[in-house]
Design brief:
The chain is α/β, with parallel strands linked by helices. It has one domain (about 5-230). The protein has helices spanning about 15-25, 45, 55-65, 70-80, 115-130, 145-150, 165-175, 190-200, 205-215, 220-230, and strands spanning about 5-10, 35, 85-90, 135-140. The chain has a four-stranded parallel sheet, sandwiched between helices. Strand 3 (about 85-90), helix 5 (about 115-130) and strand 4 form a beta-alpha-beta unit. Helix 1 (about 15-25) runs parallel beside helix 8 (about 190-200).
Length: about 240
């Protein structure tokens, strides 16, 4: 236990399952990790937005922008749940397809693509938040999808360029018999728990294994390094 609380605001429950195990590698236990979005009951923020956007990039944006200067998700996280920090997650794969303008950096022949894209997304989130809470936020920016992070547990190569990482991951899960049935989970109601369970079975929650996996995905490594920097002077 770390004796501090950390929250997660993410696009979906699958993302939360992965991030929870990465946090466990830094000493957090389940009771210290709060699932803010998706997870909290529908609140004032949601009532002002299209319900189809909840649990997507737009849902993360809704949480960050709030309504009329108020951000219920953050207020509840810090004031009611006593979160010390919040992880904000976004996949970059479909970021140009939203209701806001975004121009990603040049990808071809650009060794700094991941770093530049990560910084652009962090700046976008900061703008949504009007630069509030800066010292209490951590950013899990998955380039291009969090499934590419999961692929590091199966493939010994850079997983960022892999096209359609979701399908590729599913192939590995099938091949290794890592299925909903094996873990006795419901295929539609337990997606977050499934991602949490299979990544834990690959020891993502152990720092030794996490440190090995991140060498095959720059955006995953950047998130791990940000956690190390935030908690390096605290007992894990």
């Amino acid at each position: 236990m770390r004796n501090e609380i950390i929250g997660i605001i993410s696009e979906g429950v699958e993302d939360q399952g992965v991030i929870k195990n990465i946090l466990r590698a830094f000493g957090f236990d389940g009771s210290e990790i709060k699932l803010i979005r998706p997870g909290l009951s529908k609140d004032a923020t949601d009532r002002h937005h299209d319900q189809q956007s909840i649990g997507t990039i737009q849902g993360v944006k809704n949480s960050c922008t709030g309504k009329d200067g108020k951000r219920p998700d953050f207020d509840k996280a810090f004031s009611v749940l006593d979160c010390n920090n919040i992880v904000i997650h976004i996949d970059t794969a479909e970021i140009e397809e939203q209701d806001f303008e975004f121009n990603r950096p040049q990808k071809e022949d650009n060794d700094n693509y991941c770093a530049e894209l990560r910084e652009q997304v962090i700046e976008l989130i900061s703008n949504w938040l009007e630069y509030n809470y800066q010292d209490r936020l951590l950013y899990a920016i998955a380039i291009e999808e969090i499934e590419a992070w999961c692929l590091t547990m199966f493939e010994v190569r850079d997983t960022v360029p892999i096209i359609n990482s979701k399908n590729r991951l599913q192939q590995h899960l099938n091949k290794n018999n890592l299925t909903f049935k094996k873990f006795k989970l419901h295929p539609t109601k337990s997606k977050g728990k499934f991602f949490e369970t299979f990544t834990k079975s690959k020891k993502l929650d152990k720092k030794k294994h996490l440190s090995k996996y991140v060498e095959y995905n720059k955006s995953m490594k950047d998130f791990m390094l940000s956690l190390e920097k935030r908690f390096e002077n605290k007992k894990a």
